[in-house]
Please model this.
Amino acid sequence: MGEIPAPTTVRDAFAAYAQRVSRALIAVEALLVDEHVPRRPEWECQACDTGTPWPCAPAQVRLLEAYRRDLAGLSDYVSTLYHAALEDLRTDSWRELRDRFVGWIP
Ligand SMILES: [Zn+2]
Model:
């Protein structure tokens, strides 16, 4: 994985953002070892009971373990997923969704 160059146009910015999101989505499956990964576009956990919002408690534990020395990196990473979820879910309750995605990080 190479560095994504700083975008100079709006189109480049969107392309860089889309690339960032797709990398984050690929990484989440590796980080969670294919368990407790989000089902899109619902953003529910694939392993927990139907309708369990992602990130579920086991996903939070695994993400914290993976990023225990880099909580800022975890926050940045989960924020990217939050923005992807915001687009998928098309919800007006963005604060609630933000708390769900980022609020559990110590
Ligand atoms: Zn789960």
Q: What stands out?
A: The pocket of zinc ion is lined by residues 36, 45, 47-48, 52, 56, 58-59 (CB under 6 Å).
